[in-house]
Inverse folding.
C-alpha cells in the first residue's frame, strides 16, 4: 500500500522549516595563526641551535656595539622609524600603481579575514623568528647581500603575479640587515619587521 504524501505541516528532518534559509557554510580554512606559531617556533629554535653549535649567541642587545646599541631605546626608535617609512611607501605603491594594487589584492585574498589580534600575533612571531634566523644566525656567516637574497627567496611564491612580493622581501631584507649591522643588535630589525607586518597585515585583511 503506497504511503500518502505528507502535508506541509508534517516534519521532514531533511528539509529546512518553511520560510527559513539554510545558512551558507563558510569555507574551511586552516588555523593560520596556530600553524604560523608552530613554524616560527621551529625557525627560532633552529636559530638558537645554529649559533650554539657555532659557539655564538643571538645578539638581542650588544652593549659593546657602535651606533648606540647599548641603549635599547635607540634600537626601538630606529625600528619604528624604518617601519613607518616602509609602511608609507608600500601604501603609496598599492594606492597609486596598478601593480601595487594587484599585489595587495592577491595577498589579501590569500590571507583571508584576520582579526586585529591575529594580525599582531603573526607580526610578532614572524618578526622575532625571522630576524633571529636571517639576521642573528645567518647574516654574520654569509654577509648582508647573501642574507638579504636568501630572505627574499624564502618569500618567493611560484606565481608570476606574486613575483613582486619576493623583490619587496629582498629590499626589506637589505633594510633589516642594515639595521642589524648598524646597531649590532636584533632589537631594531625585530621592531621594524613586526611593525611592517602588523600594519600591512591589518590593511590587507580588514575588509576581507
Amino acid at each position: 500500500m503506497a504511503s500518502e504524501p505528507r502535508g506541509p505541516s508534517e516534519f521532514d528532518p531533511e528539509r529546512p522549516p518553511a520560510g527559513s534559509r539554510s545558512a551558507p557554510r563558510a569555507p574551511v580554512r586552516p588555523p593560520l595563526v596556530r600553524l604560523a606559531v608552530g613554524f616560527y617556533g621551529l625557525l627560532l629554535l633552529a636559530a638558537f641551535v645554529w649559533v650554539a653549535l657555532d659557539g655564538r649567541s643571538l645578539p638581542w642587545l650588544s652593549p659593546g656595539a657602535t651606533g648606540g646599541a647599548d641603549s635599547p631605546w635607540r634600537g626601538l626608535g630606529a625600528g619604528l622609524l624604518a617601519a613607518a617609512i616602509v609602511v608609507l611607501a608600500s601604501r603609496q605603491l598599492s594606492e597609486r600603481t596598478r601593480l601595487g594594487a594587484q599585489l595587495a589584492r592577491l595577498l589579501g585574498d590569500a590571507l583571508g579575514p584576520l582579526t586585529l589580534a591575529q594580525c599582531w600575533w603573526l607580526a610578532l612571531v614572524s618578526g622575532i623568528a625571522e630576524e633571529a634566523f636571517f639576521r642573528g644566525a645567518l647574516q654574520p656567516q654569509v654577509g648582508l647581500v647573501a642574507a638579504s637574497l636568501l630572505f627574499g627567496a624564502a618569500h618567493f611564491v611560484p606565481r608570476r603575479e606574486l613575483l613582486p612580493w619576493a623583490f619587496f622581501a629582498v629590499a626589506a631584507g637589505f633594510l633589516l640587515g642594515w639595521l642589524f649591522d648598524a646597531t649590532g643588535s636584533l632589537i631594531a630589525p625585530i621592531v621594524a619587521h613586526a611593525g611592517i607586518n602588523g600594519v600591512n597585515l591589518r590593511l590587507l585583511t580588514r575588509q576581507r
